[in-house]
Design a protein that fits this description.
mainly beta
Length: 569
């Protein structure tokens, strides 16, 4: 109650005075201070206590113990872990001798015999003899008998740092100039001997090459070849080839994984003699080069300097550049480059391609001048391979086969071939596709398209523009081996002549391009393996039974078959 009175007095004293002050601001107020303010701080007392760690000593006890030696017999047995072994494939058994015999309906005996050493790390030696001939006639045409006999003896010696190999060979090729119909020429009589041609080839090949394992070694190979060729009309050809290749791995650039610097030098000489002329010709060449590979890129750079030795000496220089890029490793590889080449057309190269040539055929040099090439290659998966390529050249003196009219024994009996030369812009597109499934099935398809831009000739005589081949083989449980082959080519043209007499009685001869139709040649072969050493086979040739012409007036055999056996011992 008393507290309430005091509170009321306090409010009246302060609140009322403020109110009065607001009403009358001119009124004075006195405040009486009873005593002065005297602040004071009490004395502080310090706690005189210091922390302390008591260091009590603990005595280390001494322990005494002993080990009781006692064997514990355990029934748990631990088997040793054997090292893993990779089972290697056993080498197949080899036989020293192999014999293949056959006979075809074209009166064609066939023999192929091979004898050689078994496996050896020091040397190798072998002999091969092969013969195939045909005697059957072709309706309306002269006797077409032909045959090839070959014999080869080869050996090889393996050393620690070098390998030496050599081969001695002989080949006889026989043919008849049957490209005419005797009934069309009753005024002349030609026996089989009169139209026979025989080529004999004997030669030797040698190769000495290094097999160093050190990458820093100077690698080299030396090659010396010789052959002598003669025919039934006293034409001869001697050839000597010497070639030396020296190369060494270098390290000009640190970023490269492989670099090689080398040089290839050599000489190729021909000595020809026929019933008209004798000539000695040759090519001496030197070709330095440099190879560079890094990452997915590869380059080959070089220069080829050829000395053409004929009636005069001329020099040809060809730059050689090749670039390769692995766009997708091993799956897609692109390549391109430039190159050139000098080739000698010889009696051997002509007779290997066309055995019906005249013995006095003109043999020039063919100059493949500045050319370009490029393409893509690789494989898809494990089974499919491909290669697509184009080539483009300017060629001086490209040869084309034409029927020889100068040596014909009768008017129109043009059963031999000569050559004409022309300057050509030549391009070629090649497509290769391969399919391989383990060792059971293989297929290879190749197509080639040729294009010729001629300076003087009307047509690229006896040259088809399109050629396609398909080869397949299938292994059926190692018992049946089946092979199929298909060859086809497009039409081509042969040079012929036609005589016309004008109203004034003058006979004019002019050139005519006669079309030769394209053809398909389908062949099938089946071999049955009775055992690992004995088998029998049958070959069906020209199943489509077509009569086609690879050379003008030279028809092929129609359907024929061959039966035979093989034996290893």
């Amino acid at each position: 109650m008393q507290m309430k009175k005091i509170l009321m007095l306090f409010i009246i004293a302060f609140g009322g005075s403020n109110l009065l002050a607001q009403q009358d601001s001119t009124k004075n107020e006195e405040v009486t201070v009873v005593s002065a303010y005297d602040p004071a701080v009490n004395d502080a007392f310090k706690l005189n206590i210091a922390p302390k760690i008591t260091d009590d000593y603990i005595e280390k006890p001494n322990f005494e113990y002993s080990v009781i030696s006692k064997n514990i017999n355990s029934r748990l047995g631990v088997n040793p872990i054997m090292a893993a072994k990779i089972a290697g494939e056993s080498a197949p058994k080899l036989y020293r001798n192999y014999l293949k015999l056959g006979f075809a309906t074209t009166i064609s005996p066939y023999i192929d015999f091979f004898a050689g050493m078994l496996r050896s790390k020091k040397s190798g030696f072998g002999v091969r003899i092969k013969h195939f001939s045909s005697s059957a006639g072709i309706k309306e045409y002269a006797y077409p008998g032909s045959g090839v006999t070959e014999a080869n003896v080869y050996g090889r010696k393996f050393g620690n740092k070098h390998t030496f190999s050599t081969e001695l060979f002989y080949k006889q090729s026989r043919a008849h100039f049957y490209g005419y119909k005797p009934d069309n020429f009753p005024e002349i009589s030609l026996s089989d001997k009169d139209i026979r041609q025989t080529y004999h080839l004997i030669g030797l090949k040698t190769l000495y090459e290094s097999t160093y394992r050190q990458s820093s070694a100077l690698h080299h190979s030396l090659k010396l070849n010789y052959y002598y060729l003669w025919d039934g009309y006293n034409s001869t050809e001697n050839n000597i080839l010497f070639d030396a290749d020296i190369n060494k791995k270098v390290s000009f650039f640190n970023f490269s994984k492989e670099q090689k610097l080398g040089i290839d030098i050599g000489a190729n000489l021909w000595f020809n003699n026929d019933s008209i002329a004798s000539d000695n010709t040759g090519i001496v060449y030197i070709s330095p080069y440099y190879d560079l590979k890094f990452s997915q890129y590869g380059f080959h750079v070089g220069i080829d300097v050829d000395l053409q030795m004929d009636s005069a000496v001329s020099v040809h220089v060809y730059p050689i550049v090749t670039a390769e890029v692995q766009v997708i490793k091993d799956i897609l590889v692109t390549y391109a480059g430039i190159k050139g080449e000098l080739q000698k057309n010889s009696m051997k190269t002509f007779s290997d391609e066309n055995i019906f040539i005249t013995s006095t055929i003109e043999k020039r040099f063919t100059n493949y001048k500045f050319g370009q090439f490029g393409g893509v290659k690789g494989h898809i998966g494990k089974y499919f391979d491909y290669n697509l390529m184009f080539v483009n050249f300017t060629v001086e003196d490209m040869p084309f086969y034409v029927n020889d009219t100068a040596s014909a024994p009768a008017e129109g009996l043009n059963n031999k071939f000569s050559v004409v030369y022309d300057r050509v812009k030549y391009s070629r597109v090649v497509a290769d596709f391969g399919f391989h499934y383990k060792s059971k099935f293989n297929a290879m398809l190749r197509g080639t398209y040729h294009n010729y831009f001629l300076d003087n000739l009307d047509q690229p005589w006896l040259k088809p523009k399109l050629e396609v081949s398909l080869m397949m083989d299938y292994n059926m449980q190692d018992k049946f081996l089946i092979k199929a082959e298909l060859f086809t080519f497009s039409k081509m043209y042969a040079r012929t002549f036609k005589d016309e007499t004008d109203p004034s009685g003058i006979t004019v001869r002019y050139e005519v391009a006669e079309e030769i139709k394209g053809a398909f040649d389908l062949n099938l072969g089946v071999e049955y393996r009775y055992s690992k050493v004995l088998s029998g086979f049958i070959n069906l040739n020209n199943i489509l039974n077509q009569r086609y012409y690879k050379f003008y007036n030279y028809p092929s055999y129609r359907f024929n078959l061959m039966l035979g056996i093989t034996y290893s011992f």
